[in-house]
Write a structure and sequence with these properties.
Layout (H helix, E strand, L loop, with lengths): L4 E8 L3 H11 L2 E4 L3 E3 L4 E8 L4 E6 L4 H5 L4 E8 L2 H10 L3 E8 L7 E7 L2 E7 L2
Parallel strand pairs: 1-5, 6-9
Antiparallel strand pairs: 1-6, 2-4, 3-4, 4-5, 7-8, 8-9
Length: 129
């Protein structure tokens, strides 16, 4: 999404702890949030920052169970935004469909996230701090 800063890529997994071990061994992880349950997102999530721009978010639980069974690992791309509602409106103007309205996310300290489905896949917008 033009005009937005890349924040992270979301990866589905069946076992978040096992996948976290792999991420820590395969990448230069600079920080690890630990596994966090987010009841509003109906998922367990874990964020890893690397020595590169952006981060990796692991997602497990009912929200991604169907994708995991289909061996789909790439789940979404996330962009940070200073104006969540304007970002959603811009995406919709380009034909995106809203998947979830702005919702506080435990992983991001209550900052709101929203998901839209675009012609290129699922996009998450993260409200800047």
């Amino acid at each position: 999404m033009l005009g937005h800063a890349f924040h992270h890529i979301g990866i589905t997994c069946a076992d978040i702890e096992e996948t976290a071990q792999y991420v820590r061994s395969a990448y230069s992880v600079t920080s690890d949030s630990g596994t966090i349950h987010d009841p509003l997102q109906n998922a367990d999530v874990r964020l890893f920052n690397e020595g590169l721009p952006g981060a990796i978010e692991l997602v497990s639980g009912p929200v991604v169970q169907k994708l995991v069974k289909q061996h789909v690992t790439y789940y979404h791309i996330c962009y940070s935004t200073g104006d969540l509602e304007a970002s959603i409106a811009s995406a919709k103007a380009l034909g995106a469909v809203s998947v979830s309205p702005p919702t506080p996310a435990v992983l991001f300290g209550g900052r709101r996230v929203a998901f839209v489905f675009t012609r290129l896949g699922l996009v998450e917008f993260l409200e800047e701090a």
